[in-house]
Amino acid sequence: MVHVSATPVLALRGVSKRFGAVQALTDVDLEVHAGEVVALVGDNGAGKSTLVKTIAGVHPIDEGAIEWQGNAVKINKPHDAQGLGIATVYQDLALCDNLDVVGNLYLGRELLHRGVIDEVTMEKKARELLSTLSIRIPSVRIPIASLSGGQRQVVAIARALIGDPKLVILDEPTAALGVEQTAQVLDLVERLRERDLAVILISHNMADVKAVADTVAVLRLGKNNGSFPVKNTSHEEIIAAITGATDNAVTRRAERRTTEAAK
Amino acid sequence: MSDTSKTVKTDSAEAAKVGAGAAEGQTTVAPSDDPTAAPVTVVDPRLLVREEGFKGYLTEFKRKVKGGELGSLPVVIGLIVIWTIFQLQNDRFLSADNLSNISYFLSATGMLAIGLVFVLLLGEIDLSVGSVSGLASTLFAVFVVNQGVNAWLSLVLAVLTGIAIGALHGWFFARIGVPAFVVTLAGFLGWNGLMLWLLGDSGTINIPSEAGPVHLLGQSSFFMDQAIIGAYLLAGLAVVLTLVGNFNEQRRRKAAGVPFRPTSEILLRVGALGVASFVAAAVLNDSAGVSNALVIFLAALVIVDFVLRRTTYGRQVFAVGGGIEAARRAGINVPMIRISVFAISGGFAAVGGMFFAGQTASATLSAGGGNTLMLAIAAAVIGGTSLFGGRGSVWSALLGMLVIQSIQTGLDLLNMNTSIQYMITGAVLLGAVVIDSVSRRSQKAAGRA
Lengths: 263, 449
Fold this sequence. Notes:
The complex is a heterodimer.
Chain A: E1 10-19, E2 22-32, E3 37-42, H1 48-56, E4 63-68, E5 71-73, H2 78-84, E6 86-89, H3 101-105, E7 112-113, E8 116-117, H4 119-132, H5 149-161, E9 167-171, H6 179-194, E10 198-202, H7 206-212, E11 215-220, E12 223-229, H8 235-243, H9 249-262
Parallel strand pairs in A: 3-10, 3-11, 6-9, 9-10
Antiparallel strand pairs in A: 1-2, 1-4, 4-5, 7-8, 11-12
Chain B: H1 2-8, H2 12-18, H3 20-29, H4 54-66, H5 73-89, H6 96-121, H7 129-146, H8 151-176, H9 180-199, E1 205-206, H10 212-216, H11 228-256, H12 263-287, H13 292-310, H14 312-322, H15 324-329, H16 334-360, E2 362-363, H17 372-382, H18 395-413, H19 418-445
Antiparallel strand pairs in B: 1-2
Helix pairs in contact in B: 5-18, 6-12, 6-13, 6-16, 6-17, 6-18, 7-8, 7-9, 7-16, 8-9, 8-16, 11-12, 13-14, 14-16, 17-18, 17-19
Keywords (chain B): Cell inner membrane, Cell membrane, Membrane, Sugar transport, Transmembrane, Transmembrane helix, Transport
Membrane topology (chain B): Multi-pass membrane protein
Transmembrane segments (chain B): 70-90, 102-122, 127-145, 151-173, 180-199, 227-245, 266-284, 290-308, 337-357, 363-382, 394-414, 420-438
């Protein structure tokens, strides 16, 4: 069983976000602990991407509160999120095809040695990082262009780890990958958990979610629609929550509780 | 590990054909149960060059050519072909005097090509470099002759003007979003117009060339006043510095435990460089010596190469050329890189203009006109810098100019008409771009671009 610390690394409390007339997020709660993989699932347009973007600082929230390790924080721009220790790997990986793996890993934060790019130390650290993550790529000195999709994905994830983040957000990391490559990425997600990182994983693939996630948070029409521990929840229950066929024990209990609280 | 490498050692050419897929294939070969074999030390069969000795380099070379990574191969072949043809037509072509001529005249357009390499690395084009160089030489002449300003100060002013013009182009491109092609095409016309207006009715301004920058860049100015030792000193310096740099790198890599170049390979490379540079030095000494213009050009190449490969700025230029979105997400200020690159291009164009002024000791109506621009672009592309951005090296300015200037000088020797020269230059430029496009396509097919 995964060790889960008491204070969540990141907690969203009643977060709302509007785009003009469209209410994208309504009163959304989310908690992620260190060493926990939270899968964020939902139908298209459920607000997954918006939620991730509010955490990553792309869209500031309208209402609600964000807590980082127990303290209230404001995330207004991507830089704020990076400063806290939030790393986001977007679906389009945004790697430079012409640069080699080392160059991409350290792009924008090159290590310098007397004002000159320190290729040797960068290569050494890159190899160390990749080997602790058990990432298999032919060489750290070949251009990204010669890597496969799965290899690019793991390089993109490894790149997010260079800044020593506490929370890693993965947006559909397996969407474009084959079976073997998906397995590689899922292995990597587990290794992130072993390193005691908090992980938010957006996925459409229920099998992937069941394989690596500890908790599944379901969004539907911009609202929370249940949060399930993966171990004790069936595939069907999650699907039901996603599609809105909410006639199940968990949501009924939650509903009962809220109506009681209202009274 | 040697065991692993043997099992992994499949036919390299075949592995290359499989391309990226081969990488997955070979991971299954890796002994997953062997704890000593850390995953990243598993080497792609395509990269097992050093383990195979000489044969490894040969197969690696074949694979690269097949994969479209031609490097400086077209240049070497081109040079051999061109030199053979011209030597057969006129036996004075390979004489020391003519080769010395080539080495002197290539530096002016070469300066333009250095600036263009920066722009090409972004995947853009700067059509204004010829006009800017002409304008810079005219400005210089106007300052010195008409206004009586100190020659060195005038040179600085002219180069600063070039940088400002380039930055203006870059600003229109990066901030307003006008395609670089159009902005610099407007510049091509506009700055040429300004030059003609400055020259006015006189048409030509002669610049006194007894001293100062014009003398330094002139054809009768040589490194260390034609001392025989001068050329060998330069060649020796190049060899020693390369050797020290390589061994230093090897030592640091060994200490860090990352793959390093074996001593034999370093000696081979430095040996080749040594032979080339000492032969060149001997040939130039046989004529008159190493012209100062060439020395300045070579120094500029070394400095710019260092900036591009070893500094954060250079890395950012490559990153913007390779993927704008990736560069932006990495926190790189893309507009600033674009503006600065065009400023660099303008600056080098102005420096090239000084070289042109040095060649003729005058500012003329035709300065920077004609096929100057085409030659500079052709030089950069022939030398191996891609028009599509992200790939290339500043040494392509030197290699490409060797080809271009050989053709120019050869055609002059044969008393060819300008019309023929233009047609041949056009064909060479087209050929270079075709090679670039085809090599890029085969790189894509081989999963390398």
